[in-house]
Write a structure and sequence with these properties.
This protein is of the alpha+beta class. It is built from 33 helices and 26 strands. α19 packs antiparallel against α21 and α23 crosses α31. The termini are close together.
């Protein structure tokens, strides 16, 4: 059959469409085109085109002119007799007498038609069960994954937005344009908030928030480990956590008042009213009694502020000594501005504030060669919007989630949804050619375009609806598994949030309109005459289908590349030397219900004769993240010989270096034989020794240059640098000290390799003897350290899941497209076999077009993946180098998977008996 068939003049068709009433257009066009086809055979194409034009011109009469159609159709009108003699067309299509009522416009959807559409839709889907199953599976998996990813991203993006006037709440932070590294810190000195409020009366409210590790709380002889946050009365004016009981205006006015969270009040008092009841907080000599003045609703999951109870900040143990100290940075400050105050304007007015209260810091920066930034600041107090604090890792001290991760989640969700939609569109378009005769018959029987669009689009919407419902069911069933796999805390309640419901409904409507509407619109454009004569062909699929296949494979390859690179980075972080030996060490959080120093000594005594125990020590800071989920940090700053020194201040006990196998470079470790070791002796890391500038730091005495009366500390040893915190962060200098007064919060026990299998159970048994009132929460240190890379691990797993599903959906779509494409080429394959083509050559012919598309997809996705992952890796001080072999392996894998998918049909088609495919010829 000739691919280029004669067609009537296009402008003549457009003229007829302009002058002809819609009720008659399709029937007239069909008859005219049929007559044109007969005339081409009888008199030739040129003469047939002339006759066609004359026939169209005959219809250019006042009755048909659209501008007068409404007026003429409301009157009795008799068609000219000459029209009844205009060839066979007019005799078959138009009677000599018509009224306006003879041309009623059919309803788009009536109840009977809707019922008929549903019957036809279910019958069609049942007849094409394979096609329907592929679409439903693809859409349901996509909707399920998107539900989880959208929900995770939605909760992250709504952090702290539940507060009333959240757009007027800000966290203050200190900016320093240090030549070595620009710093932004959200921990500020205690006197800053009162000075800020006094110097700038336009500030509506301001509060400090001092949080640390959990405190011991006693209620009626029962003990609880709870997070008691210390704050100011303005806390309840700034944040809109609902106060269930008590007076919001004065709940924190008294220094002896305590506001309990709803869950803590329930745990401590049950159903009893807690207002006015006493509560003791603290241990040993720091116990203080408070009176309950209110009960506040628990902070929701998407709150960056956590608490179990609230008391006044003046109750902090170090408050009296630090309340005028502008050098101690250890708590955030939040302010609320009136609606009329612009935060940018206030930041400009805060410049004199910095010069007034931080002159020493400014002077030190100038000595280092610091220059003003674009805003003219070397050092400044600035404001960060509360709703952005969660994504600002500098201001939140690394607790926030990088906004890039949220965007990645959304990107992955849209990628998977787009791949499923592409499959749906491709399959619908490919399948439309198998339904072309059905569309042609319906058009010849009088069906209008809008009716066909509703019917065909309704079938697609039905498939979308089934996929959407199955996807939601899968989401419900897989909820616990998702939370466990990705260490998420999602709840079913979040699914019913109005914003999330609106988001998912919008996604469903968008998919139904785009994925279902476009193929339906294309099918309604088929010409009835050409369809019924078999002139619609799929031999040349065009740009659209190829573009969609390239797009989905490009996204699949992109995700696959990102998966491999992210996994390499996580593995790199895990295997990097930490400066200490994390294997064979068990970390035990002490908690608040026992004295850590006493428990440590008892444990040492119990394990002294056990050959499986190699060393026992204590510390104030855990390595990694243990079962108590607590992470704390203590830093100090001082001036030594005119140089500003900043270092981590680490409390340790004897044998700390031995227990962790930290390499000693010079000097000695802490020793019980030297009483002064627990008073004014320190062990420092190599980087801190270099900052001090001493050629032989061991034996050096030092103190703050500004402190002329305080006692000096002596360096007794230098150890190799080690990571006290994540490898993803820079290694800070560390200064270790021993103290008999400061509390021990963690105990480390090194055991022999041969006893690892039974060590945990044995330690638990011993713990129950030395600290029966405290829960045993021991964990292996290497597991704790792995928790440092929780975000990276989660991202790697998400990439793995997404790339696997994307490749699966892409192959599923390619499988169906290849099947339909090969079915269209059955006769071609038969002819090729008759002409002597071999089976391998046939497989190559049938596969090469699709393989080309996969190669194009690789060419598009490779540079995007390289640029994106290179940008992501720059967030780490130490990272892997992206290897070209990653892209080579992904490319080979993609081609092989595509070939395997296509070959299933190619081999089957190549082996087919050509007699069967050609017998109809």
């Amino acid at each position: 059959m000739d691919d280029k068939l004669p067609t009537p003049p296009a402008w003549a068709d457009r003229l007829l469409k302009w002058v002809c009433p819609p009720e008659l257009l399709e029937e007239l066009l069909g008859d005219l085109h049929e007559q044109f086809a007969d005339q081409v055979i009888a008199v030739g194409e040129q003469k047939a085109r002339q006759d066609y034009l004359l026939e169209v011109i005959k219809f250019v009469r006042p009755y048909f002119i659209r501008q007068r159609a409404v007026q003429l159709l409301t009157q009795k009108t008799t068609l000219p007799d000459s029209l009844t003699t205009a060839n066979n067309i007019s005799n078959r299509s138009i009677h000599s007498q018509h009224k306006a009522s003879d041309y009623p416009r059919p309803l788009l959807v009536s109840p009977d038609m809707l019922r008929n559409y549903l019957k036809i839709a279910f019958r069609t889907l049942w007849k094409s069960k394979g096609y329907a199953a592929i679409n439903v599976v693809g859409l349901s998996v996509a909707f399920c994954i998107c539900s989880f990813l959208f929900l995770t991203a939605y909760l992250q993006l709504t952090f702290d937005q539940f507060h009333q006037d959240s757009d007027r709440i800000f966290q203050a932070y200190l900016f320093s344009n240090d030549p070595q590294k620009v710093s932004r810190t959200g921990t500020l000195p205690l006197p800053l908030m009162p000075a800020l409020k006094a110097d700038y009366p336009e500030i509506e409210a301001a509060t400090r928030l001092v949080t640390g590790r959990k405190s011991l709380v006693e209620v009626k002889g029962r003990y609880f480990d709870k997070l008691v946050s210390m704050t100011d009365p303005d806390f309840l004016k700034i944040f809109s956590f609902p106060l269930i009981k008590g007076n919001r205006a004065n709940a924190l006015n008294n220094l002896s008042s305590i506001v309990l969270s709803e869950s803590m009040a329930r745990a401590a008092f049950g159903t009893e009213d807690p207002i006015g009841k006493p509560v003791k907080v603290g241990s040993d000599n720091t116990v203080k009694q408070y009176i309950v003045s209110g009960v506040i609703r628990d902070a929701p999951y998407n709150s960056s502020i956590r608490y179990d109870a609230l008391v006044r900040v003046e109750n902090a143990p170090s408050y009296q000594t630090e309340k005028e100290n502008w050098s101690a940075f250890f708590h955030p400050v939040f302010v609320k501005l009136p609606a009329r105050v612009d935060p940018t304007t206030l930041e400009e007015r805060l410049k004199p504030f910095t010069q007034k209260y931080f002159p020493g810091n400014l002077e030190e920066l100038v000595k280092k060669g610091a220059k003003p930034d674009q805003r003219g600041d070397i050092m400044a107090v600035r404001l960060q919007k509360l709703t952005n604090v969660h994504f600002d890792r500098d201001i939140s001290n690394g607790r926030g989630a990088p906004i890039a991760v949220v965007y990645v989640l959304l990107g992955i969700a849209f990628f998977i949804l787009l791949i499923a939609c592409i499959n749906f569109i491709n399959l619908n378009i490919a399948r439309s050619f198998t339904r072309a005769r059905e569309v042609g018959v319906r058009k010849s029987l009088g069906a209008l375009k809008n009716q066909l669009f509703v019917q065909i689009g309704g079938e697609a919407t039905l498939i979308c609806l089934i996929g959407f419902l199955v996807g939601l069911l899968l989401t419900y069933l897989l909820f616990p598994q998702f939370n466990a796999t990705f260490d998420s805390r999602l709840s079913f309640d979040y699914l019913l949030q109005p914003g999330f419901v609106a988001l998912m409904l919008s996604v469903f409507i968008l998919v139904a309109l785009v994925a279902g509407g476009y193929p339906a619109w294309q099918m309604t454009k088929f010409n009835a005459v050409e369809v019924l004569k078999g002139k619609i062909s799929m031999k040349r699929p065009g740009i659209l289908r190829n573009s969609l296949i390239v797009t989905q494979f490009a996204m699949s390859c992109l995700l696959a590349c990102c998966t491999i690179i992210a996994a390499q980075q996580v593995d790199y972080l895990r295997t990097r030397p930490l400066g200490f030996q994390k294997e064979q060490v068990i970390s035990i959080p002490v908690g608040n219900q026992v004295n850590g120093r006493q428990v440590l000594q008892r444990l040492r005594n119990k394990l002294a004769t056990d050959p499986a125990v190699l060393a026992v020590t204590g510390t104030g800071v855990n390595l990694g993240q243990g079962k108590d989920r607590v992470s704390s940090r203590s830093t100090i700053g001082f001036t030594y010989k005119g140089k500003k020194i900043a270092t981590d201040w680490l409390l340790v006990d004897y044998d700390y270096v031995k227990t962790l196998n930290i390499r000693m470079l010079s000097g000695r470790d802490f020793n019980r034989a030297y009483a002064a070791d627990s008073v004014d002796r320190v062990v420092v890391t190599e980087s801190l020794a270099k900052q001090l500038g001493e050629t032989n730091p061991v034996g050096t005495y030092f103190r703050d240059d500004e402190d002329t009366t305080g006692a000096k500390s002596q360096i007794i040893g230098v150890v190799a640098d080690f990571h006290l915190y994540s490898v993803a962060d820079e290694k800070n200098p560390i200064m270790m000290h021993v103290s008999h007064s400061e509390p021990i919060h963690y105990i480390f026990v090194r055991v022999s390799e041969s006893s690892l299998a039974v060590a945990m159970d044995k330690l638990k048994s011993v713990w129950n003897e030395v600290a029966p009132q405290a829960e045993f929460m021991g964990s292996f240190l290497d597991e704790n350290v792995d928790a440092w890379y929780q975000n990276e691990e989660m991202l790697s797993r998400l990439f793995s899941l997404a790339s696997g599903i994307a490749i699966l959906l892409s192959c599923l779509g390619l499988f169906a497209i290849a099947l339909m494409a090969i079915e269209q080429r059955t006769k071609e394959i038969g002819i090729r076999k008759v002409m002597g083509a071999s089976i391998p050559s046939l497989i190559v012919v049938l596969s090469q077009d699709f393989v080309k598309l996969v190669i194009i997809a690789l060419a598009i996705s490779t540079p995007i993946a390289w640029l994106g992952m290179q940008s992501w890796l720059t967030n780490y001080t130490e990272h892997v180098a992206i290897s070209v072999w990653v892209f080579v392996l992904v490319g080979l894998g993609a081609v092989l998977i595509a070939l395997a998918t296509i070959s299933i049909h190619s081999v089957k088609a190549a082996l087919m008996n050509p007699v069967k495919s050609l017998r109809s010829e």
